[in-house]
Amino acid sequence: MPASRWNNNVLDFLKWFIDEDDEILEELDFQPISTQLLGEGEDVDSDEILEGRKLNDPIPSELPILPLRGVVVYPQTAVPLTIGQPRSINLVDDVVGEDVRMIGVVASKKPELEVPKPDDLYTIGTVAVVHRLFRAPDGTIRLLVQGLTRFRLQEFIQEEPYLRARIELIPEEMEDDIEIEALARKAREQFEKIAEMIPSIPRELVTSIAGLEDPLVTIYTIANLQRIDLSTAQEILEIDSVSEKLRKLVTLLAREVEVLEIGQKIQDEARSEIDKVQREYYLREQLKAIQRELGEGDEQLVEVEEFRKRIEAAQMPEEAEKMARRELDRLSRLPSAAAEYGVIRTYLDWLASLPWSVTTPDQLSIENARQVLDQDHYGLKDVKGRILEFLAVRKLRQERSEEFDAEEVHDVIRRVREGVILCFVGPPGVGKTSLGQSIARAMGRKFVRISLGGVRDEAEIRGHRRTYIGAMPGRILQAIRRVESRNPVFMLDEVDKLVFDFHGDPASALLEVLDPEQNIEFRDHYLEVAFDLSQVMFITTANLLEPIPSPLRDRMEIIQLSGYTEKEKVEIAKGYLIPRQLRENSLHSNEVIFSDDALKAIIRSYTREAGVRNLEREIGSVARKVVTHIAEGKAEVEEISPEKVREYLGRPRFFGNEEVAERTSAPGVATALAYTPTGGDILFIEATRMPGNKGFQLTGSLGEVMQESARAALSYIRSRADELQLNSDFFEKADIHLHVPAGAQPKDGPSAGVAMATALYSLIANQPVRADVGMTGEITLRGQVLPVGGIKEKVIAAHRSGLSTVILPRRNEADLEDLPDEVRSGLKFVFADTIDHVLETAVERILTPQGEKVEE
Fold it and tell me: How far apart are CA 671 and CA 679, in angstroms?
């Protein structure tokens, strides 16, 4: 606790007011501690110096009242006062001219009031004698007053020119017992503790306090020296019992001791930390002197020189080199113990570590690249063709560089772009990530990958500014430094899983990274200088294209990767999955042999996916069973047949054609083709009816668009009930419930419209839908069938599920060119313009206008 908490102005003012004239001391009936310790005072040039009267003069029943602001005068204490209000000055002028210079000093309840009224004063105050007076040049008067005894205000008999009141003296209730002596001794001991922690309190004062015997003098003297709240000081004055006064004072002093001890502990800790820093600085300076004597270089100078060499070797662009040298100059002038030294050192380390001029030469052999790509992946002709095109352009540009450099450039704004930005979109397990590694191997470049799934802060991409503690560059430059090349194949995985919320929009930060026109000067917030990303081959991956923001999608070349057919999965398993599982499970190639039928059994009965991840897991499960048999000595070679698959993997999980036939055997069920994040799939649209009145209920976690498609389908069927030979009163007597399993999986989109219309017609006409037919397309209220997306994945799902006929919108006919020959030749395609065309193909039998059933 700082010494200013203590009432040092009492000591200072007393020394200033009272000189060594002994006459004052002789006039006092008691000698307060504060006056005994003054010593020699200072001679003051005053207009008037008054000598005090005897303290045993009788106290009048009426006294002039001097209001005090923020201070309480106790009996038996000397207190300096400064007054400046005109009415207070008038009061003093009148008092000093009288024989008995006694006044009543009362504290104001509201210290902020300059001229308090009678109601603003406490009712208990102190009778005081004016001992000394000094008129200052600024018009104020400084007094030294001596408190005598307490009084209570009875009534005010005068308010102008100053307050005057009738008073009643209040005697102190002095108990004479051992408890008071103990409390007084405790108060003196606590004061001594406080004095030890506050150097500004004179030791003579402490000695005098320790020698006091009168408990009342002890109370008022210590309370006068301690700066306490006005209300607490007034409370001590108003308490009649001396023992209660002592208890209050001891409580205050105990708290003060505790606060001072805590403050001293904090101060000691701070001083210890400062001493530690000074000691380290002193030792470092000694170490530098020793190194100079031994002829060794200064550690800091060696580090600065090392950074200088690294900056020269990095071959930075002009802007980056200028920034690096400027920061290096700052580093050389800072002491190594400075907090900013580590920040600048880390920044320079990042600058010098980036591959500003380090590139990997491209392998431009087209044949070699084709061989590597075919060796690593089966199929994927579109992706492989795009990579070969890129290499061919690079090769031709390199061969004709001199010719083009000699030509005059007319377009100075649009530069030649060197990098390429691809986006692989497809279901999980089709090889998007591994394809990036294969591309890097084919081109002879280094490969680096970061995952963007769940990234929600743009600082993850562009870094934090150096003003933040622990700041560092974003993940883009971190990966570039890690790969040590400025032209790697850079894969940004799961770009459709970026999070957009109040933390920021990382997709917007990627705009500069993935824009060929801007990434030549990519500026990370941490580095604050441009870094050239134009030679990086960026490849992003996504399961769905829709979640990617349009501005970001516009900057990338989209390449769709569809799911694999059964034939492709068999070839991938034989060429890639089985060899890897044999290696992982320590099997030789001749110890386990998978037949094609066994692989087809696994694909059809134990997996249902667009990719091959689950297929590899099931193959690995079979391989581990074989390993167990070999380890137990039960077999040396295993030939895996469909029967062995059933034995090792248990009961089938999927049933293909049988499931479709079983579920569509009853009227009101149609098979729809859907596109999901995991590839194409089939959905069953189920409709049922019950007695009611035009009710229509939708279930199955359907989104708003899908619900609107269902209502549009019902409206079309109702509007054409007569043309479709349906009972016109059907809707008057029944409720319809439309459900799309599985109910826990959210579904949305317009492409199930034709399947919903077909299911409703099948229900009302009581005619089942053909089990081998799948369909997709959006429906209008006029019955038109509109084109939809994801045709390739949907058709592959239909082929995988064993369907033989697929109904598509006529305007999707061109999408069949993207299908593999195996799928295209194994399915019958029907292209519909209206719902009538769909019903003609999908429903087994239709009704005549008379309601009779006829074969289609």
Answer: 17
Catalytic annotation, pick one of 384, 569, 644, 794: 794
| Percent of the chain predicted with pLDDT > 90 | 12
Burial status of residue 76 (CB atoms within 10 A of its CB: 0-12, 13-18, 19 or more):
buried
**Whether 794 is catalytic:** yes
For 2-77, strand residue ranges (E) read: 62-68
Residue 590: pLDDT over 60: yes
Q: Is pTM beyond 0.85 here? A: no
55 phi/psi in degrees, rounded to 5: -75, -10
Which long-range contacts (C-beta less than 8 Å, at least 24 apart) are formed by 288-291?
Answer: none
In a 3-state reduction of DSSP, which class is residue 792?
Answer: helix
Question: Which residue in 34, 107, 101 sits closest to 64, CA to CA?
Answer: 101
Token pair recorded at residue 565: 């057919």
H helix or E strand, kind and range, residue 267 = helix 242-294
Find the catalytic residue in 751, 762, 792, 801: 751
Mean pLDDT, to the nearest integer, of 590-595? 89
- pLDDT tens-digit readout, 752-788: 899 999 999 988 888 888 888 999 999 998 889 999 9
**Measured between alpha carbons, how far is 413 from 76 in angstroms, rounded to an integer?**
94
Residues 6+ apart with CB under 8 A from 647: none
454 pLDDT band, cuts 50/70/90, is confident
The sign of the dihedral angle between the CA atoms of 664, 667, 672, 677 is negative
Q: Closest Cα partner for 320 from 521, 534, 533, 537?
A: 521
The CA-based angle 694-700-704, given to 5 degrees, is 75
- CB count within 10 Å of CB 746 equals 10
598: left (phi over 0), alpha (psi -120 to 50) or beta: alpha
Residue 657 has what pLDDT?
62
Distance between CA atoms of residues 25 and 28, nearest Å? 5
622-652 burial: b if 16+ Cβ within 10 Å, else e: bbebbbeebeeeeeeebebebebbeebbeee
Q: What is the pLDDT, as a whole number, of residue 771?
A: 85
Return the bridge partners of 779, or none.
785
Cis check: omega of the bond before 742, within 30 degrees of 0: yes
Contacts of 531 (CB under 8 A, 6+ apart): 320, 354, 356, 477, 480, 521, 522, 523, 524
Give the residue from 16, 58, 29 showing the smallest Cα distance to 143: 16
User: Which string of DSSP letters, residue by residue, matches 585-627?
Assistant: TT--TTTEEE-HHHHHHHHHHH---SSSHHHHHHHHHHHHHHH
Read off the tokens for 305: 């020189």
The answer to whether 751 is a known catalytic residue is yes
pLDDT of residue 304: 84
Give the separation between CA 419 and CA 405, rounded to whole angstroms. 19
